[in-house]
Design a protein that fits this description.
It is a single chain. The protein has 13 helices and two strands. It is mainly α. It has one domain (32-351): Up-down Bundle (Rhopdopsin 7-helix transmembrane proteins), CATH 1.20.1070. The chain has a two-stranded antiparallel sheet with strand order 1-2. Strand 1 and strand 2 (202-205) form a beta hairpin. Helix 5 runs parallel beside helix 8. One of its GO terms (biological process) is visual perception. Residues 71-334 form the G-protein coupled receptors family 1 profile domain.
Amino acid sequence: MENETQNSNVYGAYFAPLRSGDGVKMLVDGLSSAELEFIPEHWLSYPAPPASAHTALALMYCFFTAAALIGNGLVIYIFATTKSLRTSSNLLILNLAIFDFIMMAKAPIFIYNSAMRGFAIGSLGCQIFALVGSYSGIGAAMTNLCIAYDRHSTITRPLDGRLSRGKALLLIAFVWIYTTPWSLLPLFRIWGRFVPEGYLTACSFDYLTNTFDTKLFTGCIFIFAYAIPLLLIMYYYSGIVRQVFAHEAALREQAKKMNVESLRSNQNASAESAEIRIAKAALTVCFLYVASWTPYGIMSLIGAFGDQQLLSPGVTMIPAIACKGVACIDPWVYAISHPKYRQELQRRMPWLQIREPDDNVSTGTNNTTNSAAPAATA
């Protein structure tokens, strides 16, 4: 009994084949003892899923990969090659697109495993998959936090709250530095480890092994990579809502006193409309982040501190799918809601039929009209 406690994977290596002797193929059948060392004991007692489940997940990941790589690739290309879009705030959007891009760049590992119906690519592929997932997932969380901070600062302090280029680069450097320990410590097994999960076709940090170190790592990564960014994002966006409502109320009150319909000129109203559209896009992306990563956070807490019997292989694949979905949606949210991005897409890819009004055309028309008036008078 003591030997089994010390090395649960040896138990699995000896007895998993016996459990499948009744003709039921087990999840870990066909794996060597060396491969079983990377797999938490929790997965040893589950039967293998039907081939159709692997096929469905592979097809789903193919769609996610194509959508994410095309969408985020367009964002990276256009933002990086268009001078007018290389603003301080847009550097954060570019950083988010990079994280989303690399999140789905690792999907071929999952697709290959699903095609081979199991842990086909081995421990090295598992470590690469989990490392990239850790960087991209935590990095996206912290970048969403930085975007929320930038929007809050810009809207609540319009005169001096805009992000400078140097500060934006510092925030991006901070995101990568903050993400690194949570990714490298489990990679080198200094604290935590990366292991297969679900159908053994995906990998993440270990939240199932019943040790103090595993529970502590799971709790810490939940707090510092999910809960704290979430709370700060909620704080910043609630501040934006309060500021907008207070500003609108003050404008309406002043308009009543002056007996006019509105205090805004058309130009100011248009500028504010663009600013609010960008803020709404950022808010949507952050909401999507919360919706996609909350299931995974809850699942990891259940695995570390709750009833692990709730976590069957099929159940644990659902939060993983939700995480990948947001990487596909982020770029399309910005494409729909960022006016200058839409204009640049329209200019470079007119066949997309975006039909976004061009600021340059409008400005040129206004300038022509204004210059024509004095000439006519003369």
